[in-house]
UniProtKB/TrEMBL annotation:
This is Vitamin B12 import ATP-binding protein BtuD. Residues 4-229 form the ABC transporter domain. SMART domains: AAA. The keyword RNA-binding does not apply. It comes from the Bacteria. Signal peptide: none annotated. One of its GO terms (molecular function) is ATP hydrolysis activity. Pfam families: ABC_tran (PF00005). Keywords: ATP-binding, Cell membrane, Membrane, Nucleotide-binding, Transport. The keyword Membrane applies. The lineage of its organism: Bacteria, Pseudomonadati, Pseudomonadota, Betaproteobacteria, Nitrosomonadales. PROSITE patterns: ABC_TRANSPORTER_2. It comes from Usitatibacter rugosus.
């Protein structure tokens, strides 16, 4: 069953189309990374999915219209926005008590286990924590909620590399159970590549790539060639070429790997490499619409 189904989503702010006809389908039990440059429309898309903003087009999340049935949806979905909002006066322990009191699907033992892996002092107020610590607290609270859909907008912003790694490990090992659906946006693509089952690129309010990681790995390839093979490699219509230590690395969509292997070392490119190849020169914010 689909967890998220969007067709022709459009959202305009004045003369700016933040979403310009987004089609996206996410099946239950998938972990989708929504990747895009600054201003591409990621947060707007997540807000539409969470019923925080109305938009045109068709949108169903867990079978509901998020704008009209937000209350019902929020019983089964939870999210972390890129701008975390926790009151500055609340202590860490009180924040846990509060969510335990108001959220029927909150598992205190899970939140405690998550917090135990951090250096968060329980008796300190949010206002006295570092930015990264506030994010850690926020993550501990949200990851302890038993939800069908978890939406994460830049969840590791401001966190150090050790905690970022730990967060994604526990997202995969402790939180993900194969049935929940996770939607995550981040600029730190390399760090989540191994976590994702699917990836979508958004640019200028449009989805420009939507693929399972399996299909992605079969579809894109990269070859590193010595200068004498560069012309032959260019003749095979690469999407992108870059130079590293005097060698050319060329990236292809649906190329014949056996042919590429005759020219140099072939490998599967990272999401970041394909992102640069597809969007690099065209990265931009929303489309301007005719007034
Ligand atoms: N409330 C708003 N009012 C006016 N314009 C907005 C509003 N929210 C977003 N936009 C515009 O819509 C476009 C998409 O913004 P959005 O925040 O969705 O991008 P993003 O991909 O999340 O960017 P980033 O990676 O920088 O957070 C941008 O051009 C932005 O300026």
């Amino acid at each position: 069953m689909s967890c998220i189904e969007a067709r022709g989503l459009r959202k305009t702010y004045g003369t700016t189309a933040a979403l310009d006809g987004v089609d996206l389908r996410v099946e239950e039990g998938r972990i989708l990374g929504l990747i895009g440059p600054n201003g591409a429309g990621k947060t707007t898309a997540l807000n539409a999915i969470l019923g925080l903003t109305p938009c045109q087009g068709e949108l169903k999340v867990l079978g509901r219209d998020p704008w009209k049935e937000r209350d019902e949806l929020m019983r089964e979905a939870c999210f972390i926005a890129d701008v975390a909002v926790l009151p500055r006066w609340i202590k860490v322990s009180q924040a846990v008590d509060y969510v335990a009191g108001v959220h029927p699907r909150f598992d205190r033992a899970k939140a405690d286990a998550f917090l135990a892996k951090t250096t968060l002092p329980r008796d300190k107020k949010v206002g006295k924590l570092s930015k990264g610590m506030v994010t850690q607290l926020h993550l501990a609270l949200v990851m302890a909620i038993d939800a069908k859909l978890l939406v994460l907008d830049e969840p590791t912003l401001g966190l150090d590399i050790l905690f970022r790694k730990q967060f994604y490990d526990s997202l995969l090992n402790d939180y993900f159970d194969g049935k929940r659906t996770i939607l995550v946006t981040t600029h730190q693509v390399e760090e989540i590549q191994h976590v994702l089952t699917d990836v979508a690129f958004i640019n200028r309010g449009r989805i420009v790539l939507d693929s399972s990681m399996e299909a992605f790995e079969g579809r894109f390839s990269e070859v590193m060639v010595m200068p004498e093979n560069a012309e032959a490699a260019r003749a095979l219509s690469p999407l992108h070429e870059r130079q590293v230590f005097g060698r050319s690395i060329l990236l292809y969509d649906n190329a014949n790997r056996t042919r590429l292997a005759e020219l140099g070392e072939v490998r599967t490119p990272s999401i970041a490499d394909v992102f640069v190849a597809l969007i690099g020169n065209d990265a931009g914010t929303a489309q301007r619409v005719a007034a």
